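Contributing new records

If you add data, match the layout below exactly. Sequence lines come first and carry their own label; structure lines follow with theirs. Keep one chain per record. Anything else will be rejected by the validation script.
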Amino acid sequence: MQSSSLLNQIRQQFSALRKSEQKVATYVLKHPSAAIHLSIADLALATEVSEPTVVRFCRAIGCKGFQDFKLQLAQNLAQHSNFGAYRLQQTYTPATLETVFDNTIESLLKAKNTVSPAVAEQAIIRLASSERVEFYGFGASGIVAQDAQHKLFRLIKHCAAYTDPHMQAMSAATLSADDTVVVISQTGRTDALLQTTQLVKQTSAKVIGLCPEHSPLALLADWVLDIGIQEDTDRYTPLLSRIAHLVVIDMLAMGVALTKEPEINNQLKQIKENLRTLRLNKKEK
């Protein structure tokens, strides 16, 4: 069963469920967002049934068990959520913090579903084999670019991040076919970034895009890691897309590290030794 049809599956099978299982179904249909955060004991308590009944309910609707049920429900909500319902209120309330966490979890699930594992693998192989890697971005995406450089410079000998269009343009002129630029954008429509990416393409260097699929920036990229997070930027700086971008950068860094083992082991060991000399307790690891 596809996760996108889980709630419909519950509605369709509702009449075939036992009365005790219908209690669980009713709660899940009314409070799906709350249900994904409950333990099996909490859900049983909330619906006044036993824990084995919750497990039977999960299997009755086609899930392997309770954890599989929660995973499919979370994916269901991520794929079919109404963003407007999750906007922050005009004034602060205790629920504000929970809303921020829920929105972030939702955005990460969306990114997980939209980023192609095959494309990610190709991007990792390209980064690991590149002579030089640069990260371009502006604003909040510029911060992500700097974080990416901080993670990758230990793995790739020549690694830099540029958040100024003039620096990007000058650096682009020095690239070669063995180099790779990762362009980061929440919208994929920033004119200055499009211009510098076009300069990169003229050098035969490759481009990896962290941006929405089918955006102008994505059309220029050789590989696109599709991250299209919709959010309210009228009142707040981009929050959700930034977190999703950071997680994807972590994924790329981990992939590069694993790809380049064991050749970088001595290098990483030396970096760790150097950092140890800066601590008060030199023996601390």
